[in-house]
Design goal:
224 residues, alpha/beta, eight-stranded mixed β-sheet, two-stranded antiparallel ribbon, 5 helices, 25% helix, globular, binds cytidine-5'-triphosphate, binds calcium ion
């Protein structure tokens, strides 16, 4: 898109985007988390804003400046992210789950800092978190609401992506290829946007902003 005038093709739309990675408390000072920076979600927010959308960004543990003009809601745990996304999705036309959600959380966080006892570490019992993307896909505020998910896959990337798209029930799944496989046909493709109609649109290698714009292109093509 470069310095060309930005087309405001998302004007009048409300979008809710999750970004970053959730953290699950082990005790008051420790957590289970992941390395997500939130940059892809922030790029989605910035590009949606530039294209005219009204943007809510639910940001899980990011260390990025709040984008001007975007309503940013900071969260930590998966439960907090789920609550904030449910609220934002209520009046959203498009919902994008770009956050890396912790699959598991400790059954209970210790109230006090866990101390060494000399007897070795106690195991931490985990339980599975709810699937927010599947929930938001299944309980849409309105039938025409679009729901977008992200996934990173290895091995048979397209088959894994198709299975995940079906399991989640979302309208678009942006599948990133990780590892060495060149499953997308050309070395320039680092992602593919899958839809339930069987379409798969390759996203050329590029910045997080260019991937974000490709996502909004796919969304814009599906708007009612
Ligand atoms: N996601 C979610 N809630 C979860 C886990 C994932 O909403 N508890 C969302 C992510 O934000 C992402 C999509 O689901 O948009 C795919 O995440 P991924 O981790 O690939 O899916 P999982 O169902 O957790 O499958 P896997 O076992 O491959 O990790
Ligand atoms: Ca997962």
């Amino acid at each position: 898109r470069g310095s060309a005038a930005v087309v405001r093709d998302l004007a009048g739309l409300r979008v809710a985007i999750s970004a970053g990675g959730t953290r699950e408390a082990i005790d008051p000072v420790r957590f289970i988390g992941n390395h997500s920076s939130g940059r892809q979600g922030y790029a989605l927010a910035a590009t949606a804003l530039a294209r005219g959308a009204e943007v809510t960004l639910v940001a899980a543990n990011t260390a990025l400046p709040d984008p001007a003009g975007v309503r940013t809601v900071p969260v930590r745990s998966t439960a907090e992210l789920a609550e904030a996304m449910r609220a934002a999705a209520r009046d959203a036309d498009v919902v994008v789950m770009a956050a890396a959600v912790a699959d598991f959380r400790p059954v209970a966080a210790a109230a006090s800092k866990i101390k060494k006892t000399g007897a070795g570490p106690a195991p931490i019992e985990l339980t599975e978190n709810p699937d927010i993307l599947a929930e938001l896909s299944a309980s849409r505020a309105k039938p025409e609401q679009l729901v977008v998910g992200f996934a990173a896959e290895t091995d048979d990337v397209l088959a894994n992506g198709r299975a995940k798209l079906a399991r989640k029930g979302c309208d678009l799944l942006v599948v990133n290829q990780v590892g060495d496989g060149r499953a997308f046909g050309t070395p320039d493709n680092e992602a593919v946007v899958l839809a339930p109609d069987g379409s798969s649109v390759p996203v050329p290698h590029g910045s997080k902003e260019s991937v974000a714009d490709a996502v909004w292109d796919a969304v814009a093509a599906r708007l009612p």
